[in-house]
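#struct-help
A.M.: can someone run this one for me? Single chain, 374 residues.
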Amino acid sequence: MGHSVTVVTSNYYFPFPNYNQTVKPILGQRKRPLGKRRERGISTIRLKSAFQLPGGFTAWLSDLQPTLMKLEPDVVFANGVFQPLALQIALLKKKLGFQLIYDSHASSFNTDLQASFLKKTYMKIFKVIAVPFIKSSANDFTAVGESEKQTMLTELGLPPKKVKLIHLGADTDVFYPDQKSRQLVRQKLGVTNDQVLFVHAGKITENKDLHILIPAFAEVSRSKPELKMLIIGSGPTKYIKLLKKLAKNNDCDRAITWLPPLPHHQLAKHYRAADIGVWPGDLSNTIQECMACATSVVIARKISESQDTSHLSTSRGVFTYQRYSIISLSKTLSKLVLPKTKLKYLGAEAQKIIDRGFSWQQIAKHHLSLVQDE
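D.P.: on it. Structure tokens below:
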């Protein structure tokens, strides 16, 4: 789009839960080398994490001011609004004069800001010291979902019109349909053209509800034994053992192939090979990546009291079920055991909504519109 972009971040990856078992196989060690380099084709500067909050969250960056003075940014998009880093960038905005737009991924289902005495105390202090600076410095706020938006409104005391909703999306330069790739992976997996292949990918943790998916898949497989399931990812050993035992007890273990986490270009190939993606629990950004490969998906109708999936379920290639209900999920899966021509149509419909509103290009345009409106 003709803009110069640099990512300034810490020398640590985000402290994902069960990091060593879930994302280390893909990302490697959490601690990263300091300095400037290109990461995934993007100019990236990693600064030393001056100190971290409990849980490993970077609270303050060393040398952030001289780094930004050298870059002379017109706009800073700051990720996260409930940590001291948000205050650090707000203070620098007053000195350096760039436009400042915050975004947040924190919501009631993934970030309980009142979960303990320590967190409650932190938030009381944060609201008194940091929030006034953040609110007065921000040109705009964005949230990746309705639940995230509501958390910002509640905790920061913002008016609804101040927080723009911009959902996460997919890199359509990596995730796109490809028939040749589809056939090669299906052959490698031993899946015939006539068989229906379900796929699930991501961190294998309890909030993703695979303990609901496996018995639901088993129920459908009893009358349709030709069905196959592909599960990609890693997670806590105890939970994965439970899932594999669940599959064996339900006589569907032979129909399920387990693969470790895959790099994006390999993950895209496996999404193309599948007919239907299934994410029965908490949402994951990789749902949009699967849809971008022209594969229809099944997701929960409502994730929690504060989060639904209406931003995706308007597509004819997206199907919903009642969360936590094995019966509801098995019925939905059963309805999707369809002729390949119908599945291809549904996959194309899923891809359409990504191309129109959830590709990285479209999401970049949404963010840039906030700047252009200033």
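A.M.: thanks! The longest strand covers residues 42-47.
D.P.: also worth noting: The mean pLDDT is 93.
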